[in-house]
């Protein structure tokens, strides 16, 4: 079997590695001429770290990521509102890692080229369309360097080409624009003094439509009492609705647009205005997602990662869900004789699970408390501890997203069985 994977991001590269582990040939088609370490920080939840560990990346992840120990909610003065242990501190068998997205992608890319061969990733190859037959697919693509049209044959096609997926657009041409939450996000990376445990993720809320998430992403800096801090500023700027403009992770933003919302923040253990002004490039991105689809693919074509289920980043779960997608896809293709039936089983398993996460992220975003008042007492006669409000929000999210410690720790391995006669 030969699987074509459109997209050389985290989801696409993990798919190639998972398929290879199952003895299935894979070729990644990536539109950019050169895959470079772009982006800022992301989080890998324990369920994703488990899958990457089973693919042999335990040591590499520990070398490039910070094992997040806790999540702390604070106000704009640094007063603690809520605390949660994360990763192994919470009882998982695997850590939660905060890592630079580009470094993770380069780690996966190097592994694909080493394990599958240097020709397994075809860069500068732009997906244009796909034709199916009873026994395979033929992808139409353009070579960016020459403009040459090429026809690439395979047995299956996996669209792992991100938020603006061309594969998804071909499968669902009438879907319409992205859904915008009305929140604009500005992202950056700045070296700061280490704060709190040195492995803490903070969520700071000013209670006026401005929020900040910050966490360390490089273990070398942490060992020196410093922090390469990834920060995300979220500001409500409009009513929710369709987004007609382009949205991309690497769109340049302006510090002048975000700094006024945070210039008067005073946290004694983290200089928020200094962090925003002391970094390099600022990226701007609207918080968007899409409604869950009733089906992802058709026949020998399916979707994976952001192409299948773009979601708000508030649950720090997007990349993690793509990694789990890849492992389930490889498992089903290795376990079933009929590849088309295997794709449908994969979709049935992952579509319900990821739809729950998409909707849980929306609820999580809407549930941010404006103050510490009891929600059952709108007149504000009785103050409820903020700890209780945040605990309720966090527990509701975990239940909706299937983020249960005992269940994950007890779950059987997804390591795919090797097909009889397939190369190990």
Automatic annotation (TrEMBL):
It holds the Pfam family FAD_binding_3. This is Flavin-dependent oxidoreductase. Residues 2-172, 295-358 form the FAD-binding domain. The gene is phzS. It comes from the Bacteria. Residues 361-387 are annotated as: Disordered. Keywords: Monooxygenase, Oxidoreductase. InterPro entries: FAD-bd (IPR002938), FAD-dep_Monooxygenase_BioMet (IPR050493), FAD/NAD-bd_sf (IPR036188). Residues 362-380 have a biased composition (Basic and acidic residues).
């Amino acid at each position: 079997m030969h699987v074509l994977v459109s997209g050389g991001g985290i989801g696409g590269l993990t798919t190639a590695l998972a398929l290879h582990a199952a003895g299935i040939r894979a070729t990644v088609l990536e539109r950019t001429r050169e895959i470079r370490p772009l982006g800022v920080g992301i989080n890998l939840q324990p369920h994703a770290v488990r899958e990457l560990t089973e693919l042999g990346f335990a040591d590499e992840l520990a070398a490039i990521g910070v094992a997040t120990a806790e999540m702390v909610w604070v106000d704009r003065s640094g007063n603690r509102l809520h605390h949660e242990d994360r990763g192994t501190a919470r009882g998982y068998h695997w850590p939660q890692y905060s890592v630079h997205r580009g470094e993770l992608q380069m780690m996966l890319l190097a592994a694909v080229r080493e394990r599958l061969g240097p020709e397994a990733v075809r860069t500068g190859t732009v997906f244009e369309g796909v034709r199916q037959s009873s026994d395979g697919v033929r992808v139409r693509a353009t070579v960016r360097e020459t403009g040459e049209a090429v026809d690439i044959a395979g047995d299956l096609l996996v669209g792992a080409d991100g938020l603006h997926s061309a594969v998804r657009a071909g499968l669902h041409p009438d879907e319409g624009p992205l859904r915008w939450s009305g929140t604009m996000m500005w992202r950056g990376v700045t070296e700061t003094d280490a704060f709190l445990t040195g492995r803490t993720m903070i969520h700071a809320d000013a209670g006026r439509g401005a929020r900040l998430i910050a966490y360390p992403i490089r273990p070398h800096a942490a060992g020196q009492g410093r922090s390469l801090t990834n920060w995300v500023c979220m500001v409500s700027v409009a009513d929710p609705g369709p987004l007609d403009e382009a949205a991309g992770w690497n769109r340049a933003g302006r510090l002048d647009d975000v700094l006024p919302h945070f210039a008067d923040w005073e946290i004694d253990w983290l200089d928020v205005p200094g962090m925003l002004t002391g970094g390099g490039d600022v990226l701007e991105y609207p918080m968007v997602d899409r409604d869950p689809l009733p089906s992802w693919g058709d026949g020998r074509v399916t979707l994976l990662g952001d192409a299948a289920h773009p979601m708000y980043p508030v649950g720090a779960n997007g990349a993690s869900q793509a990694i789990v997608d890849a492992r389930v896809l490889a498992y089903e293709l290795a376990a079933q004789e009929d590849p088309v039936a295997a794709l449908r089983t994969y979709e049935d398993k992952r579509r319900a699970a990821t739809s729950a996460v998409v909707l849980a992220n929306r609820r999580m975003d809407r549930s941010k408390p404006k103050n510490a008042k009891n929600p059952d007492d709108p007149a504000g006669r009785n103050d409820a501890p903020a700890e209780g409000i945040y605990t309720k929000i966090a527990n509701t999210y975990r239940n909706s997203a299937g983020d249960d410690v005992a269940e994950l720790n007890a779950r059987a391995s997804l390591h795919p069985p090797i097909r009889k006669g397939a190369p190990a």
